[in-house]
Recover the amino acids of this structure.
């Protein structure tokens, strides 16, 4: 799975129909997509932002779709947060 359309195709119908395995399919597809992206935080972050933007364009609103969107957003937050230096208030806590 090397492209965003391939990644979205792997789970978008399941998300649209809110199938029980849609969130798991989404997570697996995102994992597979990221294996094709160099393991460098900036590149993965950019790839996830592109995937997120494409996913939002689908305008899916089932519970499974919301869970998949949250998965993408959590991955973005995890990578973005890992690259931040501690704030002064955090260092003195």
């Amino acid at each position: 799975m090397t492209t965003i359309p391939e990644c979205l195709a792997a789970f978008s119908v399941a998300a649209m129909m809110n199938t029980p395995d849609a969130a798991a399919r989404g997570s697996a597809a995102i994992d597979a997509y990221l294996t094709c992206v160099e393991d460098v935080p900036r590149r993965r972050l950019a790839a996830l932002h592109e995937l997120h933007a494409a996913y939002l364009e689908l305008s899916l609103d089932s519970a499974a779709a919301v869970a998949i969107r949250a998965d993408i957003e959590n991955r973005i937050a995890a990578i973005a947060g890992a690259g931040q230096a501690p704030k002064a208030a955090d260092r003195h806590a």
Q: What stands out?
A: The mean pLDDT is 87.
